[in-house]
Specification:
- The longest helix is centred in the middle third of the chain and has 16 residues.
- The protein is built from eleven helices and twelve strands.
- It has 348 residues and is of the alpha/beta class.
- The chain is elongated.
- It folds into two domains: 169 residues, Response regulator (Rossmann fold, 3-Layer(aba) Sandwich), CATH 3.40.50.2300; 134 residues, Rossmann fold (3-Layer(aba) Sandwich).
- The strands form two sheets. It has a six-stranded parallel β-sheet with strand order 2-1-3-4-5-11, sandwiched between helices.
Length: 348
């Protein structure tokens, strides 16, 4: 195992121990085993056995992106499995001030726990601290606060690990070809998550003597992906491998590739959308793999918030308290294993 992948492997170990879910779709009725469980089928004495009735407040950005929509829908689906949980879902918003007001309402209503995916982690830190000081445990999802004391638990994807997984996949495909041309279409460059993904990608490629020859940034949208890919393809007459950070913007990336009539390279996606996985399974495009960034972080946060509010721990751990941080793994999906992940993918 390479040194750069140790972090991702550690995250997988944590995930395996906790038994938390990996990814989900926008449709809670698609038979996704990851969202099953709950009080109705719980064994006596288990964590899923019905306990005291609790109220959990949930707030996340607007569902204007397939991945973000899945965050909210999977959280709702998991909550429905628990007869002892009342989930209060605030309307999705990309306005930090509105989200702050939502958390203030949760505090005033004295909910038992809050699951919060902040649009802006720094902006939401003070109100999260206020909730914690009021005795309401906060589960921070995906975008971290500035102060670790603002959350009792933080549930994260592995952005650095995504880059590592994508880079290691390219290394495995390139073999001894040290002249392979590698391109990258990032998300929003100003975001730490994009910076982490690019760093992991660069570090993994370095392990096999490759580097990023051409790089552009997009904005996680279809339109932005198409524009960025068009610019990249014009600037790079030859590409062997292309990693696109996000499968939603990847819809636009693939459109640009089709328009340019380019098919000489292998493309790797990011996040793990249903659209991308279907293309991988069909095998009729340049897209041959995608790296999962779990969209169940809110659902996992809901389960952890329930345990906190009911003063329970995690069944499979010796510890008597819920952990402070859970980081989910970033596996690579290819034609060889796509059937394993396709039923639980979100729709772009």
């Amino acid at each position: 195992m390479s040194a750069v992948h140790k972090k991702a492997a550690a995250a997988l170990a944590v995930l395996a121990v906790l038994g938390l879910s990996a990814c989900t779709s926008n449709d809670p009725d698609d038979g996704n085993d990851n969202l099953k469980g709950g009080t109705s089928d719980a064994e006596a004495g288990s964590n899923d056995e019905a306990g005291d009735k609790i109220t959990i407040g949930f707030s996340a950005p607007a569902a204007d992106h397939g991945w973000m929509a899945s965050i909210t829908e999977s959280t709702k689906a998991v909550a429905e499995n628990y007869e002892d949980v009342e989930l209060v879902v605030a309307e999705g918003t990309n306005d930090p001030q509105v989200q702050i007001q939502q958390i203030e309402t949760f505090i005033n209503d004295k909910v038992d726990a809050i699951v919060l995916l902040p649009f802006d982690g720094a902006a939401l830190t003070p109100i999260a601290l206020e909730a914690m000081e009021a005795g309401i445990p906060v589960v921070n999802v995906d975008r971290e606060f500035n102060d670790p004391n603002a959350a009792r638990v933080t549930v994260l994807g592995d952005n650095y690990g995504m880059g590592v997984s994508a880079g290691e996949y390219i290394c495995s495909q390139a073999g001894d070809d040290s002249d392979a041309v590698v391109a990258e279409i990032a998300g929003i460059d100003s975001l730490p998550l994009t910076q982490d993904r690019s760093k992991g990608f660069k570090d993994a490629l370095k392990e096999c003597g490759l580097d990023v020859d051409n790089r552009v940034a997009a904005d996680f949208t279809v339109q932005g992906g198409e524009e960025a890919a068009t610019n990249l393809l014009q600037a790079a007459p030859k590409i062997d491998y292309l990693w696109n950070h996000d499968d939603d913007q990847g819809v636009g990336v693939l459109a640009a590739i089709d328009n340019a009539g380019r098919d000489e390279f292998v493309m790797i996606g990011g996040a793990g959308s249903k659209n991308a996985m279907e293309a991988i399974k069909a095998g009729n495009s340049v897209l041959k793999a995608t790296v999962i960034y779990p969209s169940t972080q809110g659902a996992d946060g809901l389960k952890l918030a329930r345990l906190l509010a009911q003063e329970k721990s995690v069944d499979d751990l010796v510890e008597v308290e819920v952990p402070r941080q859970v980081q989910l793994y970033a596996p690579v999906v290819t034609a060889d294993n796509v059937d394993k992940y396709l039923p639980s993918a979100f729709t772009s």
